[in-house]
Design brief:
Blueprint (H helix, E strand, L loop, with lengths): L1 H81 L1 H19 L1 H17 L1
Helix pairs in contact: 2-3
């Protein structure tokens, strides 16, 4: 019976060593997996940082473009508001020229008067 107990103890010892060996391999695999996951997380963080940088730059560029457009519109509006008489004069001149071109005699008279004024100056 002592031999059977020694054999069972030997088998139990072998099983214990085998389980220890398997546990060690699993621990090594877990460490490798952890290292790989950490590396992937670092890559993800780096890519997210790049995307955030691009987004910030794009947002800044869009704001600048909008500001430029608004400034240009403000400038145009100020010009229009400060020169309404000039705009009205241009419209009146265009209407006059259009009517004068429809009547050749009037147009000819205007050209003659213009030429006389140039000659006097």
């Amino acid at each position: 019976m002592d031999i059977v107990g020694i054999v069972i103890a030997g088998v139990a010892l072998l099983v214990a060593f085998w389980q220890g060996f398997l546990s060690k391999q699993q621990l090594e695999q877990a460490k490798e997996t952890k290292t790989e996951v950490e590396r992937l997380l670092d890559e993800i963080k780096e890519k997210v940082s790049k995307v955030e940088t691009l987004t910030d730059e794009t947002r800044r560029d869009v704001k600048e473009q909008i500001s430029k457009l608004i400034d240009k519109q403000d400038e145009n509006m100020k010009t229009l508001l400060s020169n309404p008489a000039k705009s009205e004069q241009n419209q009146m001149i265009m209407q006059f020229i259009t009517q004068a071109m429809q009547n050749p005699d009037t147009f000819k008279t205007i050209l003659e008067m213009s030429n006389k004024n140039r000659g006097n100056q």
